[in-house]
Amino acid sequence: MRSATPFLIAGLLVATSAGLVFADGDHAQIERGRYLVSAGDCYACHTADPSKPFAGGRPLQTPFGAIYSANITPDRQTGIGAWSDDDFYRAMHEGVSANGERLYPAFPYPYYTHVTRGDVLAIRAYLQTLEPIANAPPRNKLPFPLSERAVMRPWNWMFFDDGAFHPDPSKSASWNRGAYLVEGLGHCGACHTPKNVLGADMDDKALAGGTIENWFAPNLGADLRTGLGGWSEADVIDYLKTGRNSHDSATGPMSEVIQYSTSQLNDEDLHAVAAYLKDLPGEAGRVPSSASGQQTSSSGLSGSGEAIFLDQCSTCHRSNGEGTPTVFPPLKGNANVQQADATTVIRVILQGARTTPTDARPTPFSMPAFDWKLSDAQIAAVATYVRTAWGNVAESVSADDVGKLRRTLHAKAE
Fold it and tell me: Which of 213, 339, 223 is nearest to 283 (CA)?
């Protein structure tokens, strides 16, 4: 059958352009796959052009260079239309493509390896229903020898353990479902776990916060100051479902995660994720030497930082740093503000931010950029102020910190 036109024969849908045949009873499997694709946030990484969904080509910036996402539409030449079920499962479970090439962990197979075969095949069933799009992503921009995929053999030997998820019998079914989603399809640690010099997870600091694409993904542990210790399960659910809660609003890469993934999860799974995250331990971190939690502008903080804040920021965030919850996030007690790495704070001041629209909260709010208005020293001063005022505890920010990030972002924009 060479026609590209789908047609119906005796209850069988034959979509020959994708090489796909499925019975009416398989629609539940396809719908399950669609849901799991959302849970895995596949659209965000595998879509460079919204008019070509899932056709790949989006550059994923790593410390080693740009890696371009694959075309996962059922196009037989440039996508995965010619792959078998076993090919697809091996890619997800072992990080090996249909032609035997080793995949880079920018495709998060170290997490997807925990996904059951049934769920993997449901994902494939859904992807096979997509419109085939001919699109060959650009070549990765990696220096030698990293450009040679053979380097992934020793990397996998050192850092990758393939295997299915094993529930913890001492925990509830909901907790285990949350663990399966967070540690598997959700691949939360890809952003929120710090990496070693070779780009592998630092397992002893799982979900303690990590740097990605010039953002800092915050600590998800139980720490009161830098983690989720002050959030309830309901707070976690609100954030994942709507992109906002009384503590914070999603910006940066997390905006896409909310929009395309977590806001699409059902309530049962959101409760499960929240239960798992709220059960994570805290990290015994040191108190930054430059902040005691008791400082004010009269005890070491830059007066210019406070003055800039009152002049430029207090209209939305209020002079007491409490903001307007779910509209303008509070800075007082804000975990993002108090992370050891100030990258996100500096970046938001430089470039501004925009909350993500969701079905529950369709109206986004924006913060203006100040890179055109404030010098490196001024941004450092106001960043230091918000990180150490109102009982916040975090190290100060230097003008050099700001200048370095400003130059990096400017070069990236060119």
Answer: 223
